[in-house]
Design goal:
Layout lengths: L1 E7 L4 E8 L4 E5 L6 H9 L3 E6 L11 H8 L2 E5 L13 E3 L4 E4 L2 E7 L8 E7 L8 E5 L2 E2 L2 E2 L4 H5 L5 H17 L7 E4 L17 E2 H7 L3 H5 L3 H9 L8 H11 L15 H10 L3 E4 L3 H4 L3 E2 L3 E2 L6 H8 L9 E4 L3 H12 L6 E5 L7 E2 L3 E2 L1 H4 L6 E4 L3 H6 L6 E2 L17 E5 L4 H12 L3 E5 L2 H9 L9
Parallel strand pairs: 3-4, 4-5, 5-6, 10-13, 15-17, 15-18, 18-19, 21-25, 22-23, 22-24, 24-25
Antiparallel strand pairs: 1-2, 2-3, 7-8, 8-9, 9-10, 11-12, 13-14, 16-20
Helix pairs in contact: 4-7, 11-12
């Protein structure tokens, strides 16, 4: 048996490739939409992908189940659990509790583990060539290394009302009746790692075991004492802000993400073509450099979506494909870098890319406005906006600032002043640059606090600060 973990650092998301060498068949669990990595794994191991499935209706990324099934001819499987309100809207085989997918000597059994979502499945894997009982659990967003999947996303992102309490109760039951009944040696392979917003304290360790979590996870004592209310209180306390784009992911993943098919490689665009598109507002420019570079000058009206580990997340903060109809023009050093960025963006459903340019030369330019910490006290601001998470704001913030996380700003413009200047900040300046660029493009007068909260906190300790007196 072969189990390969494919990890996306951008979204802290793990998918899994399970293959039977004897029969040459493979199953992919929780695939992303840029599917070449799975096809390459199959080819390298002489296998055919015959099945593809997912643990639940995801909120943080757009599923590649339909994409991979269409490309390979594999059978798509999805959960049939959760009741009428949680049924998928596209054609696929439905899996119920204890249903199995067989790949040669390998048996993959669906286990209904509600809590994070009502329809959630985990998958118990048995390598029949080696043992008669399961040795592995693909736990999706049920159990993470050191944490659990949050049960409040349906309230935060899908329009639910107080569903978190029922979800937390279900999670307690799933742990007691499903997870803790497994032998200690069973290896647990979760769907997310550190940095994911699907939990509040995910570990960076890629896998764990049932026995280790039983002994050391924060929830262990609550289960041992059968303290359901204490468990619920602790589980729901301090969960991070849910990004607004999660609601779109939920809808699209339930109804069925669009199948892209083979994508034509991105082409380099002529400067004159981009200038004309910007003037006509038929394209949106994306500056993919760091906030430091952007602050030295960028394209007027551009979005700052830095290339790197958070491209998909930041992209989904500021681009809503349901309302933003312009294709994107990417700034990239070469075609390969542009293509890689596009791979990240399609993971959150941002598919329309017009092409790329390698330079800002000849494009309309402007320089974002910055304010120094020492200037803030006397600055006439309509609002000082903290785009960090609410837990960061609660731990310390600039007095009088209003908290609205970067992943929610563009969906909550009614919380912002209609007139006047907004001074915005995050912790170090990266998230702030992303959010501020989108607000400027939307017509707001935004000044970024240079150095953001970290810079302000350092300055307030200096002898010249009014806060140090």
């Amino acid at each position: 048996m072969l189990i390969e973990r494919i990890y996306d650092e951008d979204l802290a998301q793990a998918s899994y490739f399970i293959g039977c060498q004897a029969k040459g068949e493979a199953l992919v669990v929780d695939p992303r939409r840029d599917i070449a990595v799975y096809q390459s794994l199959a080819a390298a191991n002489g296998m055919k992908i015959v099945a593809v499935t997912e643990t639940h209706i995801h909120a943080d990324f757009l599923s590649g189940t339909r994409e991979l099934a269409a490309a390979t001819g594999a059978t798509a499987y999805v959960s049939g659990e959760g009741g009428a309100d949680w049924q998928y809207g596209f054609e696929a085989e439905r899996l119920g509790d204890n249903d199995e997918i067989v790949l040669g000597n390998i048996t993959v059994k669906a286990v209904h583990t509600p809590g994070h979502t009502p329809e959630h499945l985990s998958f118990l894997v048995t390598d029949g060539a080696f043992a008669e009982t399961p040795g592995y659990l693909l736990s999706g967003d049920f159990v993470f290394s050191g944490d659990l999947g949050r049960p409040d996303l349906l309230d935060e992102a899908a329009g639910g009302v107080d569903t978190r309490f029922a979800g937390a109760t279900q999670l307690f039951a799933s742990l007691r009746e499903k997870f803790l009944t497994l032998p200690d040696h069973v290896q647990v392979h979760p769907g997310h790692g550190a940095g994911s917003a699907c939990g509040k304290a995910l570990g960076a360790i890629p896998s764990t075991t049932v026995g280790y979590e039983r002994l050391y996870a924060w929830w262990g004592p609550y289960l041992a004492a059968n303290d359901e209310q204490g468990f619920i209180n602790e589980l729901l306390d301090g969960q991070p802000d849910a990004h607004a784009y999660f609601a779109r992911m939920k809808r699209e993943n339930r109804d069925g993400p669009a199948v892209m098919g083979a994508r034509v490689p991105l082409g380099e665009l002529a400067t004159t073509e981009v200038v004309a598109g910007l003037a006509a507002d038929t394209v949106t420019f994306v500056d993919t450099r760091s906030n430091v570079e952007v602050h030295e000058g960028t394209v007027t009206g551009s979005l700052n979506i830095p290339a790197g580990k958070s491209t998909a997340s930041f992209g989904a903060w500021v681009v809503n494909p349901e309302t933003d109809k312009n294709p994107l023009v990417l700034l990239a050093p070469n075609q390969g870098a542009a293509q890689e960025m596009w791979d990240h963006l399609v993971r959150v459903g941002i598919d329309k890319i017009a092409g790329y340019v390698t330079s800002l030369e000849g494009l309309p330019a402007s320089t974002p406005r910055l304010i120094q910490p020492e200037e803030l006290e006397g600055f006439d601001a309509a609002m000082v906006l903290d785009v960090r998470n609410r837990t960061e704001h609660a731990a310390g913030h600039i007095p009088g600032s209003h908290q609205l996380s970067g992943g929610r700003v563009m969906w909550n413009l009614d919380h912002l002043p209609a007139e006047g200047t907004i001074v915005s900040y995050c912790q170090s300046g990266v998230r702030n640059s992303v959010a501020a660029s989108a607000l400027r493009r939307a017509g707001y007068d935004v000044v970024e606090l240079d150095g953001s909260y970290a810079g302000w906190a350092t300055w307030q300790q200096s002898p010249d600060s009014v806060f140090s007196n």
